[in-house]
Give the backbone structure.
Amino acid sequence: MKIRERQELIRFRTRDRFLINSLLITAESHRKEEILDIPILLQIHGQLGHFLARGTPRLLPHALVERGFNTMSMNTRLAYAGQITGQGIFDDTIKDIDAAVEFLTGEGFKNIFILGYSLGASMAAYWASNREHANVKGLILEGLLYSSPDSKRKRFAEWGSSPTYEEASEKAKAVLGDDPYNSARDEILIFYHSRGPNLEPLSDEIFTYKTWWFMAGPEAHATMTYKHIHKIDLPMLMIRGENDHIVEEWEPAALAQVARKSGNQNVRVRQISDAGHDCMENSDEMLKEIIHMLTKWSKE
């Protein structure tokens, strides 16, 4: 029997007044208490994404409700083309997750798990390294980079980007000055040949100097996950698709090793066979791992 869904478009503001749109999906029930007792997954999209993007952000919530779990998929300030308009400063996404957790807690949810996909995994890890909340029980990090700046630098060199990573870094310093976050100056930054060998749109990337600086620049410490994952005490599940062309095979294991050395022994690393970056080519295996995480740690 197919479970009937209840879908609600939720809007709330962050502490700096940014408006967040989210989609809350729960099973239909006549008693709110029944819904609140069920674990809920807060889902965070990747770069330039939103809660209706292809793959994990769009399809996972419905699959989880079918299996008895609630979800809320949220936009962050990196949605709405935030990295192009200048509002998508990575460090500020911590305020977006704060607001989502506060909303869910205010509604009465007590078993909250956070899933970040791709760049959203970096957001979730950065949030958890700076925050503690009694109602947040664990993290699921799908397609998590060891370090976004290092990954960009390597990929740009591989494809022969124009400008190069080093050229963009120098220009960003010149444009933004000594205080990049508060700089009143900003400009569009286009990288050609950053993701492929030709001038087709999928081979290029576009940012502003400020959004690039805080997401992938040489001083983008918030996206250097290896530098702060040791501060996370929450149980973690790290997922990587076997055929992921963005995250290399060694990266989740290396991050898990850093976390375990700091004392967090509740770190699980799983590679999803025959799957790409969003693991949707083998959604059954991915779902199995996510459900194992939700079931195990909601009971602890």
